């Protein structure tokens, strides 16, 4: 009878260890999937930020170009007025 109880205890420990291992694997798999979803979301947000930043950069560069041309025209006008006034 004592051997039977010993075998049952060993069997119980083995079954418990197997269930714990299966549970641990399931938890790790769920965490992996959640991390993968978060990483994908982060990468997609990064792509949007980079794309929007690139568009903003080109718009900003175009505005600076226009501003530079306007200021150059104003300087040319002022200098031509000064030349006429000194003549």
Radius of gyration: 37 Å
- Total count of helical runs of at least 4 residues: 1
Strand count, sense and barrel status of the largest sheet are: none
What is the H/E string? H
Q: Kindly name the structural category.
A: mainly alpha
Descriptive overview:
The chain has 1 helix and no strands. With 87 residues, it is mainly α. It is rod-shaped.
Question: Summary?
Answer:
The protein is an all-alpha fold and 87 residues long.
List keywords for this structure.
0% strand, single chain, 87 residues, rod-shaped, mainly alpha
Write the layout of secondary structure elements.
Blueprint: H1 2-86
